[in-house]
Every structure is written in C-alpha cells, then in structure tokens.
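Input record, target 12 of the design panel.
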C-alpha cells in the first residue's frame, strides 16, 4: 500500500489569476482613474483575450467591484479604472 500524505491545510489556488500581484496593479489604477496602463507582465495572446473580458466583469479577484475597462491594442493589454462600486 502507498503511503498517504496528509497536509495541515490546502495550498492556495491559482484560479482567478494571481491576486497578490494583480492587487497592486489594480490599486495603482484606482489611484489614477481614467488613465490607461499597460499590463505589467508578459502574457499570451489568449490570456489577453480572457483578461480583456474578465477584468471589466470583475472576474479576476483584484478587479472585483467593477469600474475597470480593458482593451487589446497592437498585441498589448491596456487597463484603466473609470470608477464604480468598491
């Protein structure tokens, strides 16, 4: 019989992006409403398309509460905060 490995708690999930890294970016955007910013890390074209739809809907945890817009131009993801419920 194979040994069973028990753990004290479940490791954090990566679902929904990287909340810690994205939280700093989202906070910076909230401090400068209306200004577009380039996504801070390299991401694939497919991830850009997903984020372009997910950020305005607040699906990524750092962007909950809405008020964000996202657009893809010339192979880069741009995001801005335009206000909304927090």
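The sequence produced for target 12 reads:
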């Amino acid at each position: 019989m194979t040994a069973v490995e028990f753990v004290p708690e479940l490791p954090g999930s990566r679902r929904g992006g990287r909340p810690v890294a994205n939280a700093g970016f989202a906070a910076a955007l909230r401090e400068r409403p209306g200004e577009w910013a380039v996504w801070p890390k390299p991401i694939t074209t497919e991830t850009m398309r997903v984020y372009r739809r997910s950020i305005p809907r607040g699906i990524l945890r750092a962007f909950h509460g809405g008020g964000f817009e996202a657009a893809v131009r010339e192979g880069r993801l741009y995001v801005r905060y335009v206000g909304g419920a927090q």
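The mean pLDDT is 86.
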